[in-house]
Model the fold of this input.
Amino acid sequence: MSGHFEVFIDAYSHFRFRLIGPRGNTLLESGPYEDKQAVAVAIFDVRECAGTGLVEDHSTKPLPRSPSVSGPAPRPASAVSTGGRTALKRVSMAGTMHPDAMTHRT
Done:
């Protein structure tokens, strides 16, 4: 089964949507919208962008490692400066998103 979008009204009477993954987990929850038409446009934009959108890495430092985790620390992706932006080089990271998909527009 593929993922799906859920449209709902939040506690402040704004329309929002969630992108639910194939295992039932919430992958994305939107900001507030005034009406269903605005939600529909936003969902269309997510559908159009998600498959081709580039990932911009704005993280500044790795998350602290949990002391309960055993084994070697995960290897971070190597950063390369390209015209003032940082692009990630391919690094073996089994079980994670493919780093070669993480590039930037120049």
